[in-house]
Design goal:
alpha+beta, Diaminopimelate Epimerase, Chain A, domain 1, 2 domains, 18 strands
């Protein structure tokens, strides 16, 4: 039978910007091969699959090539979709059971806030070929559980980076965050995120990367709350604050398409 899906632009209030995710609310889990093939067909940076379990939802995230352990924008998109179709109570937080533990989404004024793990980062030696493939001059290289973080001198350096994605896929783990202070005083920092090893050359707006960036910039700016801009061609705004060992991500979302998958 046809399976409904939604395309939601996350970390934006303007359609056709931010980071798009496909979201499926399933009656039951399908096998991993089906999930992977559907994600490849959707061809979004992430496709989210949900199954309701009582008052909670099990949630999995797939790029066009792999399943991932943590994804912010597709979680934001999932919460937005569930509230918009009435599948979740808009007066209560949504609890998601995931490969990264229990995550929550709650409405806060005009934003959705996600309670995610804070991903601490520490100074690390860049693996061979990483810096060369990015084409930037690093001031610092660090590593979280998932990604490398490379700090550069200026926002212009972030925006002008033109990675060699073939080489970067061989040098990196899940992905690489490039970041600098923002030249716009309305933002604390800017970043871009490259993950060719996960099938995404450049992710438009990356919630999970900000779980690491919050730790990185807290140590340098001596503050716990940030307004950040991801300077991809689509662009997006991420609010993030550190709360103990958690990163509270905030952003807006908008549904841009609805459809049905009519093949099994």
């Amino acid at each position: 039978m046809p399976q409904a899906f939604h395309i939601v632009d996350a970390f934006t209030a303007e359609p056709l910007t931010g980071n798009p995710a496909a979201v499926y609310l399933l009656q039951r889990w399908r096998d991993d091969s089906w999930l992977s093939r559907v994600a490849r067909e959707m061809n979004q940076s992430e496709t989210a699959f949900l199954v309701q379990r009582g008052d909670n939802f099990e949630l999995r995230w797939f790029t066009p090539t792999v399943e991932v352990d943590l994804c912010g924008h597709a979680t934001l998109a999932s919460a937005h979709m569930l509230w918009s179709i009435g599948a979740a109570n808009s007066d209560k937080p949504i609890l998601f059971s995931t490969r990264s533990g229990m995550l929550t989404a709650a409405k806060s004024d005009d934003r959705i806030e996600l309670d995610f793990p804070l991903l601490s980062e520490e100074a690390a030696e860049a693996p061979p070929g990483l810096i060369e493939s990015l084409g930037v001059t690093p001031l610092y290289v660090g590593k979280s559980r998932h990604d490398f973080v490379v700090a550069v001198g200026t926002e212009a350096d972030v925006r002008s980076a033109r990675p060699d994605f073939t080489r970067l896929a061989e040098a990196a783990s899940r992905g690489v965050i490039v970041t600098a202070r923002s030249r716009d005083p309305s933002f604390d920092f800017v970043s871009r995120f490259f993950a060719p090893a996960a099938g995404i050359n450049e992710d438009p707006v990356t919630g999970s990367a900000h779980c690491c960036l919050a730790d990185f910039w807290r140590k340098r700016l001596h503050q716990d709350t940030f307004r950040a801009y991801q300077a991809s061609p689509r662009g997006g705004v991420v609010h993030v604050r550190v709360a103990g060992r958690r990163a509270i991500l905030g952003g807006q979302a908008i549904t841009v398409a609805r459809g049905e998958l009519i093949c099994d």
